[in-house]
């Protein structure tokens, strides 16, 4: 009898061990902490790399051209499509639930009002013309189907699917097919798979392997990632040598650009940009700064790639363990462009969807001995979709929106690109007393910089392509003294802007850029003697000149 009881206890223990091995447990508090970090990493990576985007195509970005990180940089992400398109899909899940149809997802995307490019634009254009998904992402209707688009927007799929790779794959089949196909789709499922595993794993090699398990092995995308892993193992300390091999095979070899929308130096194909995400993770070796820097310096889409790499890596740490330099200046109240989300609302929306994902995957939500909730997550082998490639696509689905569905597609007219206003009057009062500022845009982190080629520099930016930032003040011009407005102004190394100085009439109209300020700075003296004995309003405007790096650098604004 004693032997029978012992055997039963052993058997019961063995069953319990098997059951325990079939699940992973994740406290909901820990889930939120890691998921918050995932979004923060995206913000940090995209904002840090933004000034370099597509400035280097087929070249490594020189180390001295890498922007400097300052804690305020993180807030440069609120107008980045790398984030707000991502949130469009999250919002669809929040409103309609995890079982939302692909057709509803397509209608929501068709009704978005922001500017788009490449696969996103082609997919949305097709949706608005009545071509329903998945055909909106099929190469017959979308000549950009192998581009990077879903890869840069799939972060949400991993962040709402902790430890659930098949949830990531399914979300890709629903949202990735709105605009992508083949390797373009697989890029998003690969990135999402890394996020899902990052809730439990920190080793970059294992994270990359987890992403690979979510996509078909026979794809060129999988081949590319396998190549990067192999080349990393050969030269684990020389990322530039691996970069050269990637560039040779996946940029210069036409066999790996068969569906590229552009065959020249510009390369927005998902494969090569995915390789640069992997480069940051592997060669960064867990260092946050180095991972972002390496992924950025690889070039091409050098803000989206470090955003994905940093998002995965930050997830492994959790928000509470991310160094203060990445979060101490985080603006939690500003809303992302074209969304209903600020940072706290974004986190709550993700948790809401994640709870559904856990249950749908066969998991459950329990409480531990302290009464805190815990996700109990089933361990399941990823099941990728069937192999498809854009240059040999399968048949279309023949999917079209019904008349009733088309009546629900009412996209808003796209507004001209416009930034959020920032109030710099307090800073300006210290920099140039008596002056006031209006319509300063939030791009390029306006404010006072201690060092920017000169000491104590005021940075401003136009509000939009058509609305300048304006500095002004009333000045009493004395009748018996020569009065001069003295300006020292500069520009971003990769941009220029238009300076206008007015006092009842235009006194100066000058482009401030490399031709007029070749060393980055120029001095301008404006004689105000014609206004002697009068009170006039001076206006200095920072106007756009092509909408690329339009920040004005002000080292001096003085009336002498």
What does this structure look like?
The protein has 560 residues and is of the alpha+beta class. The protein has two domains: 11-405, ADP-ribosylglycohydrolase fold (Orthogonal Bundle); 421-559, Sandwich (Jelly Rolls), CATH 2.60.120.260. 39% of the residues lie in helices and 15% in strands. It contains 18 helices and 15 strands. The chain has helices at 2-21, 28-49, 81-96, 102-110, 118-128, 149-153, 155-159, 165-175, 183-198, 204-212, 220-234, 239-250, 270-284, 288-297, 304-317, 343-360, 403-407, 425-431, and strands spanning 23-27, 364-367, 373-378, 421-422, 436-438, 440-441, 447-451, 455-460, 469-476, 484-491, 497-502, 506-512, 521-527, 535-543, 552-559. The strands form four sheets. A five-stranded antiparallel beta sheet has the order 5-9-14-11-12. The protein has a five-stranded antiparallel beta sheet with strand order 7-8-15-10-13, covered by helices on one side. Mean pLDDT is 93; it is low at 1-20.
């Amino acid at each position: 009898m004693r032997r029978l009881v012992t055997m039963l206890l052993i058997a019961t223990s063995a069953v319990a061990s098997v059951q325990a091995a079939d699940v992973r447990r994740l406290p909901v508090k820990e889930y939120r902490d890691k998921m918050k970090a995932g979004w923060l990493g995206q913000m940090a990576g995209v904002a840090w790399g933004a000034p370099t985007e597509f400035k280097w195509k087929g070249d490594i970005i020189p180390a001295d051209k890498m922007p400097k990180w300052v804690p305020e940089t993180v807030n440069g992400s609120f107008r980045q499509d790398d984030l707000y398109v991502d949130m469009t899909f999250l919002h669809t899940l929040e409103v309609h639930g995890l079982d939302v149809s692909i057709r509803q997802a397509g209608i929501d995307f068709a009704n978005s009002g922001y500017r788009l490019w490449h696969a996103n634009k082609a997919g949305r254009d097709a949706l608005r013309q009545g071509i329903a998904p998945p055909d909106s992402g099929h190469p017959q209707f979308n000549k950009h189907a192998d581009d990077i688009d879903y890869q840069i927007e799939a972060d949400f799929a991993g962040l709402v699917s902790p430890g659930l790779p098949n949830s990531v794959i399914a979300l890709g089949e629903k949202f990735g097919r709105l605009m992508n196909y083949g390797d373009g789709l697989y890029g998003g499922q690969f990135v999402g798979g890394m996020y899902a595993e990052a809730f439990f794993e920190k080793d970059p090699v294992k994270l990359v392997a987890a992403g690979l398990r979510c996509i078909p092995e026979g794809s060129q995308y999988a081949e590319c990632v396998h190549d990067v892993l192999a080349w990393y193992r050969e030269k684990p300390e020389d990322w530039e040598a691996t970069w050269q091999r990637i560039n040779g095979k996946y940029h210069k070899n036409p066999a790996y650009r068969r569906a590229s929308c552009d065959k020249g130096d510009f390369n927005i194909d998902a494969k090569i940009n995915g390789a640069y995400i992997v480069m940051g993770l592997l060669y960064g070796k867990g260092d946050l700064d180095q991972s972002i820097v390496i992924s950025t310096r690889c070039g091409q889409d050098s803000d989206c790639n470090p955003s994905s790499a940093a998002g995965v890596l930050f997830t492994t740490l959790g928000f509470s363990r991310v160094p203060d330099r990445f979060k101490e200046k985080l603006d939690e109240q500003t809303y992302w462009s074209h969304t209903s989300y600020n940072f706290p609302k974004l986190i709550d929306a993700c948790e809401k969807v994640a709870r559904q994902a856990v249950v749908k995957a066969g998991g459950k939500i329990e409480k531990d001995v302290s009464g805190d909730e815990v996700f109990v997550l089933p361990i399941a082998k990823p099941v990728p979709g069937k192999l498809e490639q854009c240059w040999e696509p399968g048949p279309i689905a023949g999917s079209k929106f019904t008349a009733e569905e088309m009546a629900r597609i009412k996209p808003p007219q796209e507004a001209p690109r416009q930034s959020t206003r920032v109030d710099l009057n307090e800073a300006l009062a210290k920099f140039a007393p008596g002056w006031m500022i209006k319509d300063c845009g939030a791009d390029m982190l306006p404010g006072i910089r201690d060092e920017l080629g000169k000491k104590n520099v005021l940075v401003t930016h136009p509000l939009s392509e058509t609305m300048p930032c304006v500095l002004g003040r009333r000045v009493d011009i004395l009748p018996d003294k020569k009065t001069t407005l003295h300006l020292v102004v500069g520009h971003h190394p990769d941009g220029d802007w238009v300076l206008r100085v007015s006092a009842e009439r235009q006194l100066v109209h000058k482009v401030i850029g490399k031709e007029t300020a070749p060393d980055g700075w120029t001095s301008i003296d404006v004689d105000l003697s014609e206004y002697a004995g009068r009170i006039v309003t001076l206006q200095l405007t920072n106007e756009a000149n092509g909408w690329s790096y339009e920040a004005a650098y002000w080292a001096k604004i003085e009336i002498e």
